[in-house]
Amino acid sequence: MSIEDDPRERERSDLYAAGIEAYPHVPDLADRWLAELLEDGSLPDVGMGLRSGGRQLLRPVPENPANLSSDPRVSHAVLKNGQTLWVRRASRRTLRGYRPVGVVDRPNRTTKATLAALTVLEGRKTNPERLAAVLPLVDVWDQHSIGHSLYQRLEDAQKQGENGRMDVGDLVLDRPLQYAYALLRYYRPGFDELPEAKRRELLQGCCERINRVLDSTQQLAGFLEYGASDKDQKPGRVNPRRDVEAAMMREVEDLKYREIAEQLGVEISKNSQAVGDYSTVSKMVQRGRDILECAYGHDGWDELSETMRQELAEWKELSAEEQTKELSPRTRL
Question: Does residue 105 form part of some domain?
Answer without folding.
Answer: no
